[in-house]
Amino acid sequence: MQWEPFRGRTVSGDVRVLAGDRPLWAYLPPSYEHTDRSYPVLFAQDGQNLFDDDTSYAGEWHFDETLEELAHDGLEAIVIGVANVGDDRLIEYSPFGGGGSAYVAWIADELRQQVAADFRIAHEPERTGVIGSSAGGNISLYAIAERPDVFGFAGVLSPAFPLLGEEIFAYVAGREVRGRIYMDIGGQERSVEAMHRMADVLRGKNVDLEVITAPDDGHNEQAWARRLPAALRFLLR
Question: Measuring CA to CA, how many Å separate 167 from each of 170, 192, 201?
Fold first, then answer.
């Protein structure tokens, strides 16, 4: 199969799609076709929701428009949107007793190599990241803690840590977490206390940590789209 131009109704810039049982989307920076350099790569959960209103089930993140704007400031990256698996999403994004461990291993050891064969992505951990929201934020934090050999930065938006219980706090506390982590939450969400508890755990680690609470935000794609520019500015700087 070949990457094809993604002709979504609300798409901006160079976005491509690889069809299959699990669709993948690739956003390429404006300078990609005019240089031979490699780019930071960001593996993003819930790929259906990143670039186009019509593929999204709850509104898009405007990843493409945000990165097109950030490119004016020299912040560019390749983003790989990984489709979720629908009804099994929470299972796949759950590392304890679910499929999360296998999912992270697949991204780190298989998908990354596939993408590297097709696009000029960086290989260093400090230029390889993951990002997601809600349960996708959970698995993104798990990924940087579980595979520091691969992932050096993570965006953890509106994490739903209560879905994982005490195990996620014990797991992160016991790992040598390092790199850059952006973590945020809306003040109207149910998991505010849990996110700040995790932030306290991470402050004891060798991480460059940014923590944001947006007082008026709820748990939805529109809020994540508003906060995405700040997340990417921190992660890609």
Answer: 5, 18, 13
